[in-house]
Amino acid sequence: MEIIEAFTTSIQSVWLDSGFAAFTGGNFIMILVGLLLLYMAIVKEYEPLLLAPIAFGCIMANFPCTGFLTEPGVMQLIHYGIQFEIFPPLIFLGVGAMTDFGPLIANPNTLFLGAAAQFGVFVSLAGAMALGFTAQEASAIGIIGGADGPTAIYMASKMAPNLLGAIAVAAYSYMSLVPLIQPPIMKLMTSKEERSVKMDQLREVTKFERVVFPISAAIIISLLLPPVAALISCLMLGNLFRESGVTDRLSDTSQNALCNIVTIFLATGTGMTMNAENFLTVQTIEIILLGLLAFAGGTAAGVLLGKIMCRLSGWKINPLIGSAGVSAVPMAARVSQMVGQKANPSNFLLMHAMGPNVAGVIGTAVAAGTMMAMLAK
Amino acid sequence: MGTQVSNPVVIMLINMTIVFAVLFVLSLYIRLIHKIDPTAEAATRIEPEEDDVEESAPVATKPVVQEGIAGETVAAIAAALASVGVGFSQVKAIRVAPRPGWGNVARSEGLTSLKMRR
User: Fold this and answer.
1) B47 in the same domain as B31
2) What tens digit of pLDDT does each residue of A293-342 get?
């Protein structure tokens, strides 16, 4: 009898200590959300490199009683990497090493397209404030329109840590949906004649320009906007590794090994912010809708300025490259190429669209910096 | 720490202006780099020289043929290259390539399957 009693007590104790006892309906729903995201990553192949670890992180975040975020360990370390904005600049280091700034240097006018595409960020900011979010929260929500995951996480960590999960998920979801969201807006805003415009080949950019640009851009922007100095400096440092010609090993590490490792940590850590208590709120739905508004607004504003530049240049600029001003590199540039080639099969816009695309990365970081300087408490 | 502005439209206008201004300054700076680029002139000066080199008659060099390769084999290779528009003077050397184990296996498998199909 005593043995049975001891056995029952032990079983009860194991049950009470287990996650099942503390498992809530919210956790169940969030695990389903995680499974849905995993399905989209693995079966539908929507940005699987990001979505798969985010989805798994989301599932892990909803295991009760793990102490992932409260007890020292690898999970808490990953969380610190996000909380203290360590991972986004490291991702930017890889992005810089992977990206050719040549098209931007060859045609600096494309910087304006990158600036115009930030319009969506500020429209969304205004919308979020109208819905009752604070100015700080609204600025973090608005940056989703830049379609720049690392900057969105960087901004959310600084301005609205409570909304980090929803903002990160919205930003990465819209990044992966660029090929679905942008083309209808681009087609709606342009005529077939405009989409068919062929652009002249870009001039050759010398090594001197390629090396001097990242160094001087880092100095100018960092001095002007210190809150985003880490992001911009890492972006430019990565690009300098690429272009200097003497740091091939560092460039290779930045764009491959380091970027992949940090992506695993950043994406898993982002997913781990999606616990039921923080995520299953009306605010999350509002953020996702505002993110869509921001993204669509940015695309439309980029194309609109592209149309104006097309007229001013005497039909030498294809307005479609304006949509690449949102900074999803290089996906947005590929979409410009795809839509342009549908209108005119002999049209090659990819390199031309890379200019506004890179400008978009810089523009989103600048927008984040101005908002941080203006609105940070 | 920034001053607290609460009007969303004002925030929008101020920020949009700053973003355009910063990127405008950057575009001016890119143009300045292009203007002061000391290598640009040298690069354009080198170009005609490169053209000259291209225009001069190519020096026909005899390929180095490994010992043991028959003259017929060299002739067959020359004919095959000529048929695809490659001049024999562009060939540096003709030698027997090392055959790694997996290559031999693949080749024998290919031959076997070809025989079976026949």
Assistant:
1) yes
2) 888 999 999 999 999 999 999 999 999 999 999 878 888 999 999 999 99
* A10: pLDDT strictly greater than 60: yes
Cβ proximity of A159 and A121 under 8 Å: no
Is residue A196 pLDDT above 80, yes or no? yes
Which single residue is written with the structure tokens 């985010």? Answer: A54
What pLDDT is stored for residue B60 in this prediction? Answer: 54
Length in residues, chain B = 118
Output the six-digit token pair for A190.
């342009």
Chain A residues with beta carbon closer than 8 angstroms to that of B22:
221, 224-225, 366, 370
- Write the DSSP string, A12-26: HHHHHHSHHHH--HH
Residue B25 has pLDDT above 70, yes or no: yes
Q: pLDDT tens digits, residue range A152-180?
A: 999 998 899 888 888 988 888 788 788 88
Domain that holds residue B17: 1-56
Structural domains in chain B (count): 2
CA–CA dist A157, B16 (Å, integer):
22
- Contact A362/B at CB under 8 A: yes
Q: Rounded to whole angstroms, how far apart are CA atoms A70 and B39?
A: 56
Residue ending a domain, among B37, B56, B75, is B56
ipTM comes to 0.85
Measured CA to CA, the distance from residue A122 to residue A5 in angstroms comes to 65
Question: Which residue ranges make up each domain of chain A?
Answer: 73-375
Asked if residue B113 and residue B70 are part of one domain, the reply reads yes
Q: Å from B90 to nearest chain A CA?
A: 29
3-state secondary structure of B65: strand
**Strand runs (DSSP E) across chain A, as ranges?**
none
Quickly tell me which residue has 């490199």 as its tokens.
A49
Provide the shortest C-alpha distance from residue A227 to chain B (in Å). Answer: 11
Residue B76 pLDDT class (50, 70, 90 cuts)? confident
Q: Is B88's pLDDT higher than 80?
A: no
Mutation for testing the A interface, residue in B19, B24, B27 having most A CBs under 10 Å: B19
Tokens 């390769």 found at = B69
